[in-house]
Amino acid sequence: MKNNKFIYIALCSIGFIACEPEFDQPLEGTPIAVQSAGEADFSNYVSIGNSLTAGFADGALYRSGQENSFANILANQMKTAGGGNFNTPFMTDDIGGFAGFEDNFGTRLVLQIGADGSRTPVRLSETASNDITATVEGSINNFGVPGAKSFHLAFEGYGNPAGIATGMSNPYFARFAQNPNSSVIGDAIASAPTFFTMWIGNNDVLSYATSGGSGILQPTPTTTDFSMIPPPGGDDISNPAYFGGVYSQLIAGLTSTGAKGVLVNVPDVSTIPFFTTVPFNAIPLDQATADAANAGFAPYNGGLQLAFRGGAISAKEAARRTINFTAGQNAVVILDENLTDITAINAGLLNIRQATDDDLLVLPASAFLGTPNAANNALINGVSAPLADKWVLTPEEQKLLSDATNAYNQTIKGLTDDNPNIVLLNANKLLKQLANGGLISEGTKVTSTFGTGGAFSLDGIHLTPRGNAVITNELIKVINKSFNATLQPVDPNRFKTISLK
Amino acid sequence: MKKLLFVLTSCLTVSSIFAGGYRVSIQGQRALAMGHTGVAIVNSAELAFFNPAGLVYLENKLNISAGVTGVISNVKYQNLDTRDAFATDNPISTPINLYATYKITDYFSAGIAIYNPYGSSVEWPDNWTGAGLVNSIKLQAIFVNPVISLKVNDALSVGGGPIFVSGGVNFNRNIAATPGAESIDGPSQIEVDASGVTAWGWKASVLFRPTDKLNIGVSYQSRIDIDAKDGDVAFTNAPQIPTKFDASLPLPAEITLGLSYKATDKLLVAFDFNRAYWNAYDSLILDFTNPVLPSSINARNYEDSNTYRFGAQYDINDKFTARVGYYYDESPVASGFFAPETPRNDSNGYTTGFTYNVNDKLAIDASFLYLYFSEINESYDSNPNDNTPPFKGTYKSNVFAPGLGITYKL
Predict the structure, then answer these.
(1) Domains of chain A
(2) B242/A115 CB distance under 8 A
């Protein structure tokens, strides 16, 4: 042996190029460890849900986002534990958007960093090439449909190509619906899942929230035949009773063949950067500008006092509505439909007040605040021109959202409590942690801070690949614990966050 | 309003420019063949480096030694958990040494030593798993050290002189504007380059010859701080933020104590002990001149380290002298700070070589070093408070260094 080593070194000294060090246990000879599925069967894992399940990110559905959805990452980890193929209705490229429909389906957002260090998300300036009428053939495992609300999953014809132009169907589902009258849940059940995840309900509150509370809370249904209830309008909050009924039916269908699975509950919208990034006091003013703005609001402030003395509003409301700017950071001026309507006294006494810490401004407001008003460019948006309802979630609107979310989650928890085959991932709790200090997963920390936190993509709503990796690890924890499986976590540090232009 | 929204911390963290354990102890073919001992060996002009005090004891009036060594280093990295495996593709580095001494009187000699004591090239495949720490690094430094030697008496001499240093560095790594961010054009990289950086230091030494057979030597080299100013910075697949950089790198003080003993007429044995005060290398800080880019602070936490060297030479006949040696080299890199720029754990050096005397004046010296690193599991965390886990893996390295030189005396 010694002799051999001597010869080896001697040879190296002559033809030294090939004398590389060798590991005791080289990677090439080390097989991937087989993992146990425990009491679960991962041979045909199916994921059902909305944009989060689809891997939608940065305001678009694009290929690498899809490859890094939590469902796709999870399916990959299942491969060493008996998992099979995981077919995803991939878009054709990494640009995103549908050709010819860029207004509603634009390319993905990327971050533009200026030479001065400024950072602005912009749409990728490439041409969308996905054909909105193209379909994906073959069996599907990822049934994530961007935009889907709970009841949409049960809606037959939700993927009917004929309905796209009229807004009656969803182009993302149309790409892979088995036939024009398919429902998402019907196709999913027909694919005979052995294991499933379902994360639905986000859009039942989100579209109300992202529209700044432009819609309403749908009234309580008066019939128990849910198929007879017309779907809520686009920006409305789904009534919790309606949600509960639909959701229970979805689960009854999915579990009818004995499949096990995980239900992911609905996060509070107030924990996502879309609502937490733009501060309520986003208006920097110097003393002169503040004085000028105050002078502009003097008649309004005076009118409030008259209204109070006349008994139309309380002293508290008069104080809450009084507009006052000072040198430094100032709260934006907003319209609030929950204030007492006193326009009968004077048409100039609009329902306006300055925002407080309790109001949430939506992310697009960042590009709108401080710009000249379109109707009268002498006015400045957020200062002399009050922000319309769609830019702000007021405390009353937030209460509607959180009450609905809590009610949805009661339904979901109740279903998992009643059935040992389905278990709960509390995403509501996880996203609260993300927003309050962050989550550490396998040594990598992510937070919900917009742009730098690592968890959220540039739309402020959807997760990055790294955020998805963290959610996947949380799912793996729940699955391993509940079904005695040994799925291995992923290393989130190896997953990308945002893209730079 | 965009500014309001994007009051975001820019996280351009740039890791080490300079490699760890970047000292390359190859400063003479005769010494290297004997485990790089030499502080107490009066043999050739190599003394100008190892112990200038001894120059007055060289027999000839003029002594010249010159040599070049090819350093072939290989590093392999793997991680069985992530199933990553990478190997460096390092160019051969060629440190040179040139020494000349002249005996002015019986009590006074002067000389000059020119050599490359620092320098390494490490090239990992572009965008490998550790690209956030380093893609490639190239470090060079040349020392020019005029020395004098004064004989106190037949048993004691002192020597030393100033050291002029000129150096340069080129370093490339991947960057992310925020953790995990990637340009749509591909991974973003930063390359920093500084050349022609100069600095001064000094060396002082003593040689004691209590008997004809025994020599004892001590040599000390001062710490030298290399201060790079206004180095160039270039970005690839990233915003072209105009900036220069400043950085400071300590070349640690070193002390060597050693002895040689002439066991027989033909056999000489030697032992050297080196201590390098690496503790000086606490962290590497890159200051970018553009305030948009925050400074990059990289913990190093090097520790003082020792090297134990053993060597022997045997005169086979008038023409040939054979040499062998061994040394044990402690790494200055502390556990948990094992960066892939130059992954150095403790190593064992095996050396050999010979001299062929062409004639009375000219000799050819050959040396060969095989440096063996045992396999090591290590990690590096440039900032324990950031959002990324330490970079972990298993490393295995080796170095082959064949060298050739000439000795001329008159």
Answers:
(1) 45-275+396-494 (3.40.50.1110), 283-354+360-393 (no CATH)
(2) yes
